[in-house]
Amino acid sequence: MASSFFSDFGLIWYLEELKKDEFRKFKEHLKQETLQLGLQQIPWAEVKKASREDLANLLIKHYEEQQAWDITLKIFHKISRQDLCDKVLRETTGNTKIYQDHIKKKFDDLWSSKSITGVYAYICSEARQEECDYMELIFAPRETGKQPYTLVFEGLQGVGKTTFLMKAMLTWSESSVYQSRFLYVFYFCCRELKQLTETSLAELISRDWPQPSAPITEIMSQPERLLFIIDSFEQLKCGLSQPESELCSDWTKTQPVRVLMSSLLRRKMLPESSLVIAVAPRCTVELQDRLVCPEFLIFPGFREIDMQAYFCCLFQDRNRAMEAFSFVRENEQLFIMCRVPLLCWIVGTCVKREMEKGKDLTWTCRRVTSLLASFVFHMFTPKGADCPSQQSQFQLKGLCSLAAEGMWTDLFEFSEQDLRRNGIVDSHIPALLDTNILVKCTERSYMFLHMSIQEFCAAMFYLLNSDGVHPNPAVRCRELLLFTSIKKARKLHWISLGSFTFGLLNEREQQKLDAVFGFQLSRETKQRFLQCLAYLGDHEDLQEQTDFLALFYCLFEMQDEAFVRQAMDFLQQVNFSIFENTDLVVCAYCLKYCSGLRKLRFAVQNIFKEENGQHSMPSCSLINWHHVCSVLATNEHLEKFKLVNSSLNESAMVTLCNQLRLPSCRLQKLELNTVSFSGKSLAFFEVLSYNAHIKNLKLIKMKLSREEVKLLCYGLACSVCNVETLMLGSCSLLPEDCAMFAVVLDVNKKLKHLNLTCNHLDQGLGILCEALCQPDCVLEFLVLAYCYLSEPCWEYLHEALRDNKSLRHLDLSVNTVKDEGVTLLCEALRRPDCCLQSLCLVKCSFTAAGCQDLASVLISNQNLRNLQIGFNDIGDVGVKVLCEALTHPNCRLEKLGLQACELTSACCKDLSSVLTSSKTLWRLNLAWNALDHSGVVVLCEALRHPDCALRTLVLNKAEFDEETQMFLMTEEERNPHLSIIVEQSRDGTMGVDT
């Protein structure tokens, strides 16, 4: 028996097999057996109270491992569990060992066959100790005490997931890891599985068994000791979306591969087993929704120390290696590429070759496109020649055609028929395999060495075909290539296709293409792309769908100042997120050429980090950040700037604020949403004292300290400040802050809109209302939704509504107003001199009793035009009271919100009378109420009445049956002045329909 078998973990598995009575007998025999053998006694008190796990630990602690197992087997025999004795014998001398020997040979052979690039020669097949430790750690219990049973390794293609899994198989076969945990480990490559139509799990296991028949029954007898490794899961294109009823628990049943995999991964089959799933990032979201308690691990690929070691291995001369690596380290894009072992080989090989030729790396390898162009052309160029032969050119064109087809059809593994359709005949295949651009996948299928190589070749297709015609109609024209490449909803595997296409339009790359193929298409393609970007700039709907960061990467890769300047001039609004230093570099490059922006929105994360308590920022990053921020001052028509989900250190914040303070910054709307500053925030609030153009300031989800509130209010009170609209939503305001805002209202006569949504104000409202009561108060719009207001606040607001002559809109949604509060508010609202035009009481916990007061307001106050009272339990009784007021000739209401008010079709008759008599009501919201077909018919009869003024009816159409939905559709078609729109969510948000 292998020594690793003798562990407490192994013992636990066997003790767990004992029934309760058998386990009690085991303890009694343990005392007798150790006495007979003259061994040290384990205190009976400890044995008596021990669980199975505790007892295994005690045995290993007090006796040698072999001794512990000898005792255990003797006791198993005495309590008539010879089956457990036999199982131990089989596991340690039989089938597991036979299978492990087979796995070791198989994966050793697989490893030696992966010698395409030399990377595998560098990455030793023998796992280092740290790798073994990591393999064991991924299945170790977590802090919660639970053990993970489904692990998902997420990583880009080529990042090393398969290499790691191969090492895990080899290491397990050598009895170095998992021996106490897993009796059998099975490796399934989905690239091979997808070739099968139907199979069973038993057949899959038998296919890889070294003997004619696998001991399936024995293997499956302990499912908790099985590990299934599923590699390249995305190859199956299986979303695990089958209904539960289609899944199968029978591992002997033949079924479609997708159903089999879904059954295994969704725990219908062998739920006690463990799973490791390796997958590309694009599939993880769907997996997360389908798997049972999955744990996701990001596979990092090469670390910097790995890259350095590989460069030294590649160059052999350490000085030259470090010179090359320093160049790569300073180029953010190349450095990121080198995280992927295969791409590290490509980068290292190209850099080495250019250095040997004595060429300037800053020109030949500065961009990814130029590096891949050098790599591909070199692979097709015979030794000693300057360019590929005509035959090689023809083969390369065929390869580019194949790559383009794959990109448009989501195909990454190609059959011989696919190759022939793109002009690659069987006799070409050996030569293409020699280039290492194309590699063998299975006996009759092929793939590109890496996804980025396929993308590059697909991009080259569009520069080598003047007509752009492809044998597969799925391959579209250049214009559609551009729009597809920069769409937010583009194909997930289109990572760099657009960038490479633009990169090949660079003058130097055109010279390479001209030297190889003897012609250029750059001028025509550039002109077409400019026309596309001009079209994009003219259509706001297209801009909403555009991933501007993807577009910036395209322009950056092209490195053509004149073209970039023209392209950026077409754009009036951009929206992007910066997550890496490369994103910052690319955005800085493009934005410095733009001058016509009107709207700018971006996020920046993971760039400005605090290290060792200090806010560190490389000078190059600060320069690039300055270029990004300078857009605020260099675009004279820029009106709106929104910074979201961002974290800035002090240097970054000061750089941003310096641009906001410049006289040339004419920004009118400034919004910061979920933005954190580290260091002093004075610079930001000082902007209000310098920039007189800002009229709309929104700070949302900003945790403002008391000092920061003071700084903000000081800026708002400054004579230079012209802010008219201020929103401070979820900014951690407290009651004591209201005194500062009261001062602002007293001093600043420009501020008309104040929104303090989602702050804990409560008792502070009193002092705010005192400012509202001042005769010279000019505030028109006040939102206090979700401000935790309590009973005394309604008295304060009563006084404010009674005395204030400027307030036009008041929103108290999601506060516990209740019927008593409504009564107090309505006393003030009934006054004929009350100027309020819009009132929102959404989700305010009042009932039909409160409707009586509101009805009296509708009759006595002809200024009120908008009333939103959704998400209150007023029912049909409350609506009846309101409808009586709405039909009164004095009522001037235009918009009424009654969503989720517990209404039924019984109220539709009352509502229909309003629709036929009211001359002013043009919008009615009835969504999320239990109306049926009969009620809808009554409403629609009223809508047809010639005196009906309603123009917008809001309903949740999806809650109606098909007959009612068709009826509503017909009604909308019949009445051209009516729009029946859908309420999108049932969240009771405040300020609805304001």
TrEMBL record:
Residues 1-95 form the Pyrin domain. Keywords: ATP-binding, Leucine-rich repeat, Nucleotide-binding, Repeat. The keyword Lyase does not apply. GO terms for biological process: antiviral innate immune response; negative regulation of innate immune response; proteasome-mediated ubiquitin-dependent protein catabolic process; protein K33-linked deubiquitination; protein K48-linked ubiquitination; regulation of inflammatory response. It holds the Pfam family WHD_NOD2. InterPro entries: DAPIN, DEATH-like_dom_sf, Leu-rich_rpt, LRR_dom_sf, NACHT_NTPase, NLRP_HD2, NLRP_innate_immun_reg, NOD1/2_WH. The lineage of its organism: Eukaryota, Metazoa, Chordata, Craniata, Vertebrata. Belongs to the NLRP family. GO terms for cellular component: cytoplasm. Residues 149-281 form the NACHT domain. This is NLR family pyrin domain containing 4. The keyword Repeat applies. The gene is NLRP4. One of its GO terms (molecular function) is molecular adaptor activity.
